Structures are given as structure tokens and as C-alpha cells.
């Protein structure tokens, strides 16, 4: 399923190739093993239910940075922050059915959005952080996939000039209200 050569052949047949023909999907844990206690809970992060296809070989830096910043924020605050992580919707080729990564054992839909929602119950504050997980996307096309007004620059700990660099992974931030409107 996560064999890059097989994926590239499938992309060519679907006419959805990447510019350099080297990028592909890899496994990505929605809940990172770095964010749970060692032992069984850490092992559970490798379960199929916690893994999504992530356009990774050409752009994980920004999502890795998001996870690092969230980790640092939680450590620096002396309060509980609840973090929800998911993927949403299903990526479709123009005029085609849902795209899946598959092998002889499993089939997994590819979600165009991977997101984290951070909620501070004490202050009743929330933030949604979203990565667009679509192959071969150019910046001009990425803005068509932005589901809400980007507010990353309004949040001090989330300011980063690299969020819009496609090769690092396109990241936006939304208010919880905008996020709920976009994703339900």
C-alpha cells in the first residue's frame, strides 16, 4: 500500500503525477507516539485506525513543526489542552471515484485534509490547524482548498512564514467556528 513505486505507477495511470515523480504517500500516525506514555498506549499509535496516507516524502516539515509546536505549547502551559487529530473528507480525481491506497490486504481512502483542534477548557479557547494533503498541488491551486480564513499569523506561537511553502506542506489555522462550518 505504501510502496512508492507502485503509487507512482498508479498516479501515472490516473494522470495525477507529481512534478518530479518522486513524491508519494507514507503512513502517518494521527496521534504521534511521542505524545503518549511509553508502553501499550505508544504501541497503539501504530494501529491501522490511527494511520492515514500522508503526502509525506515531499513535504512533512510543516506538519512535523505543527506537532512540535503543539507539544511545546502543552508543556509550557500549566493547564490541560485537549487535542483532537483527524483526517477529513475523501480526495477524488476529477470525474472519478474516491482515491484509495491499496494492497492485497487493505484499502485506505486518501483524505485531502489532516487536522488538529486544540481546545483549552479553562479559557474556552480553541484553534484548528489544517494541512492540505493533496499530491502535486501548486500554491495557486492550494488556496481553492482553504476551507476557512487563515488566522495562523494572529496566534503568536503559530506564526511561521513557511506554512505556505508547498514543498514543506501547506498549513492554515482556523477559528473553531469556521472549522465547524467547513467540516461539520
Automatic annotation (TrEMBL):
Annotated Gene Ontology cellular component terms: mitochondrial inner membrane; nucleus
SUPFAM superfamilies: His-Me finger endonucleases
Signal sequence, start to end: none
Family: Belongs to the DNA/RNA non-specific endonuclease family.
A molecular function (GO) term: nucleic acid binding
Keyword vocabulary terms for this entry: Endonuclease, Hydrolase, Nuclease
InterPro entries: DNA/RNA_non-sp_Endonuclease_sf (IPR044929), Endo_G_ENPP1-like_dom (IPR001604), His-Me_finger_sf (IPR044925), Non-specific_endonuclease (IPR040255)
Species of origin: Brenthis ino
Matching Pfam families: Endonuclease_NS
Domain DNA/RNA non-specific endonuclease/pyrophosphatase/phosphodiesterase intervals: 42-146
Key word Hydrolase present: yes
Name recorded for this polypeptide: DNA/RNA non-specific endonuclease/pyrophosphatase/phosphodiesterase domain-containing protein
GO BP term, example: apoptotic DNA fragmentation
